[in-house]
Amino acid sequence: MNYSIKRQESYSRGQLLLRSFLGWLYILIPHMVVLYIYIIGFAFSRLATFFTILFTGKFPQGYFNFQVKVLQYGERLNATMFNMIDGYPSFSLSAKDPRVIYEPNYTEKVGAGRLLIRAIFGPFILLPHLFVLVFRIYGAMFVAIAAWFVVLFTGKYPENMFNFVEGTFRWNARLNNYLLFYYDEYPPFTGKVVDGENTSVDSDAKDHLVTD
């Protein structure tokens, strides 16, 4: 998986204040309406994916591509609302933002046995992750609040704070990948970039991949 959020050199205080006080109105509400429609399609795609893998052992690439686009949409929205990037997120599934990269690798063959085990017991298998991640998400919220004041007064998002929030998002993305049958490997207990990740991220973005 390639996952990174690029920290900007400077941030707009005006956009920060506008997002903080009116973001729910002009960003969250319209995007949640659109995202809800996409999520309905995502749910049907997941159901079709399950039965296709169960009977053929293959993950249809068309379903995979659609699901990834919906998840990328969510990642762009999260990065915006956590003040990690400026600008207004696109409503289009085909939109790309080089500052927010989420690219799980496509694997065609998925074992039916592993599919059933993960579908039934996946949340229990990931219980240690979920326990730790809940506390980390709360921590990321507090870090984001502290970073808000720093950005307001300096126009810069402290790198350590940024990396912690980014790493939390990366950790969560890995768990989603596992539950969605994108990967067979058990996720590592870290928000850091591990071996084999971010292999296709552009060189400029790589400067921002040291996490935790």
Quick tags:
212 residues; mainly alpha; two-stranded antiparallel ribbon; 6 helices
β-strand percent reads: under 5%
Characterize the largest beta sheet: strand count, sense, and whether it forms a barrel. Answer: 2 strands, antiparallel
Query: What is the count of DSSP helices, taking H or I runs of 4+ residues?
Result: 6
End-to-end gap: 18 Å
Structural class: mainly alpha
Low-pLDDT runs of 5+ residues are 201-212
What this model shows, in words?
It is a single chain. The protein is mostly helical. The chain is built from six helices and two strands, in the order βααβαααα. Helices cover 62% and strands 4% of the residues. It has a two-stranded antiparallel sheet. The longest helix has 44 residues, at 13-56. The radius of gyration is 18 Å and the shape is globular.
